[in-house]
Design a protein that fits this description.
This protein is mainly β and 441 residues long. It is built from three helices and 18 strands. It starts with 6 loop residues before the first helix and ends with a strand. It comes from Candidatus Accumulibacter proximus.
């Protein structure tokens, strides 16, 4: 806990604690590997992302490895659509503070458990050795919305963090075997957060709200090496993207005593210079054709979540609203995947994949990020209708086990604290359902 008696330091600390918590959201769109997605409605959903940087079979390679565009002739367009569902809820235990009540969290991911997604991808051939591309999608973010009176409302109530990217890209063939590619990542970030505030002299809670939008910039580099006509390797690097949010803290519904304290310290409607860093990542992949029916795919990857730098939010003591900032101290994550494609008939191809992402939280999880390690299981099918059009369907289930929560407050709820929150998120899981459509001109 950091307590700042001076007005300026108090303002910085409280706002930093409250606003930075938005970066530690529940995984509304991803269940492992932090909140960076592999799922954007493409064929990769059915493969659990196996072969991510080496597959290069459609225009989505603009995102996964821009160097893969050299394998595409003509003009290619892909529309990816998806819908996820999760019935994840918080299970309160008998060790939580009784004053918090027993209200359940509800299906807090997305809108009552549902959340849409997808992307649009374009690859254009300037020449056989030079390609241009554009991707528009969201690969970073999450959305959560707990019930109004849930037991952990003083830790987090609602939170949204979305990073939507435009990626203009270029690729060129260096030799018959080696191709290189690059993308500029222009990411628009949107942040919104609401947290309950305990009122000492009222049965009704107050609320802290903040929101902002900003642009961040980064880059992606890709390499593809075709060792033989049957085997190719892909390697990609995605730089970090800094989103410099400047949200304004807005308190509402606070009682006269707390309102006076907030106003006196300049906290209400104060602006915070807030930076959230989308982590850098590396992915290496392989694609190997066994015969005219079977191909095998695999990945290894790394994401630098230790640099994300988030803290939890809260007014720990409404009698003396200074700050409580708790570093979540994320760990870097590792990814591995294996998959297969099997040609059932001339128009139909079956996809299968399994992947694992390592844990990025140590011990108990935060109610603002109730997920950790996870297993992905994907299945899908692609139908090539003719030379100019194809479509596919895919599903993926991500299982994250159980996440225990043990938040111990400095003060009880009745004296202005947030209370102890103890429980678990059981059988953490998300189901993705997707459809993709591919055109060649």
């Amino acid at each position: 806990m950091n307590t700042f008696p001076a007005r300026t330091r108090a303002k910085q600390a409280v706002l930093a604690a409250m606003a930075l918590s938005v970066g530690a959201l529940a995984s509304g769109k991803a269940i492992a590997g932090g909140i960076i997605l592999y799922e954007v409605g493409t064929e990769d959903v059915g493969l659990a992302a196996a072969g991510y940087a080496a597959r290069a079979q459609d225009a989505s390679t603009v995102l996964t490895n821009p160097a893969g565009m050299v394998r595409l002739d003509g003009t290619r367009v892909q529309l990816g659509t998806q819908l996820l569902y999760s019935d994840l809820k918080f299970s309160n235990s008998g060790a939580s503070s009784p004053a918090l009540g027993n209200n359940s969290s509800g299906k807090f991911i997305g809108d009552n458990g549902w959340f849409p997604g997808g992307g649009l991808f374009l690859s254009y051939s300037v020449s056989p050795d030079l390609k241009l591309g554009l991707a528009a999608t969201s690969t970073f973010g999450s959305v959560l919305d707990y019930n109004d009176n849930w037991a952990g409302r003083y830790y987090v109530q609602q939170a949204t963090l979305i990073g939507a990217s435009l990626l203009p890209s270029i690729a060129f063939r260096v030799t018959d075997k080696l191709s290189l590619g690059a993308s500029v990542n222009a990411m628009y970030g949107y942040l919104k957060n609401e947290t309950g505030i305990k009122n000492l002299f009222s049965a009704n809670d107050g609320k802290l709200s903040m929101s902002d939008g900003t642009w961040g910039w980064g880059g992606n580099l890709g390499l593809m090496y075709e060792a033989t006509p049957d085997t190719r390797f892909g390697l990609t690097y995605s730089s970090q993207v800094k989103l410099d949010f400047e949200p304004q803290a807005r308190f509402s519904g606070t009682g006269p005593v707390l309102t006076a304290l907030l106003d006196a310290r300049g906290l209400n409607r104060a602006t915070l210079n807030l930076g959230i860093t989308v982590p850098q990542q590396v992915m290496g992949s392989v694609f190997h054709t066994v015969n005219d029916r079977l191909a095998l795919l695999g990945n290894v990857g790394w994401q630098q979540w230790s640099k994300f730098g988030d803290v939890e939010v809260g007014v720990e003591d409404t009698n003396n609203p200074t700050s409580l900032t708790t570093n979540l101290k994320f760990k870097d994550t590792w990814h591995a995947a294996v998959g297969a494609q099997y040609r059932i008939s001339e128009p139909w191809r079956l996809n299968l994949g399994i992947a694992y992402d390592s844990a990025f939280q140590s011990g108990n999880v935060s109610p603002m990020l109730p997920t950790n390690q996870g297993w992905r299981f994907g299945i899908g099918g692609q139908n090539q209708v003719d030379k100019t059009f194809g479509w596919g369907l895919a599903a993926e289930y991500i299982y994250g086990g159980t996440g225990d929560v043990n938040k111990q407050a400095l003060l009880p709820v009745d004296t202005g604290g947030r209370g102890n929150l103890v429980g678990s998120y059981d059988n953490i899981g998300i189901l993705y359902m997707s459809a993709n459509f591919n055109w060649k001109f």
